[in-house]
Amino acid sequence: MLELPQPGSYCCPRCHTYFRVSTRTGEITDYASLNPHVLNITLPVSAELVTHLEGMIAALLKIRQFPDHFIRELLAASRSICDIVVQKSQAIDTLTVIAVANQGEAVLGFKPSNNAFTGGHKGGDPRLRSVANRVDRIELFPLASRGELLKVIKRAQ
To answer: What is the DSSP letter of 2?
Structure first.
């Protein structure tokens, strides 16, 4: 049983089913048919661990039967993002990555413990432009708690 504070979109912490609670009626719309595969990992920032992260993301995408060219493009984008984080990190920094592979779409979220993506650059690190050329959408969100979240979306054509 889940207690929800207000209407909105939620993810069940147990089964990872996404659902929406209507503001007017309290009706629940279940998005279980999407059946996403989710990878959620927090790791110390190091070039070696980032290499292993790529393998996990690739395996997740292969399970969902994305084409090889799609996987290569998304991994190249992920590698560029991780290179920025590794370059701008100190020994104590961490990186949380959430990868969601769904029918026809993959979403990657990167949350470093520092502000690696903005780091004094208005509009974000200039290297993110090359990432944007490999994916369908890229969004950078400042987080209220501290830090930032970079969200990358790629859709299979």
So the answer is: -
Per CATH, the number for 36-155 is 3.30.565.10
For residue 51, the tally of other CB atoms under 10 A from its CB is 11
SS (H, E, C) 49-95: HHHHHHHHHHHHHHHCCCCHHHHHHHHHHHHHHHHHHHHCCCCCCEE
Strand partners, 142: 148
Report whether 102 contacts 61 (CB < 8 A): no
Evaluate whether 111 touches 148 at the Cβ level (below 8 Å): yes
* Distance, CA of 144 to chain centre: 18
pTM: 0.76
**Spatial separation of the C-alpha atoms in residues 136 and 155, rounded to whole Å:** 7
pLDDT digits (tens, 9 = 90+) for 5-52: 778 887 777 766 677 788 767 777 766 545 778 999 999 998 888 889
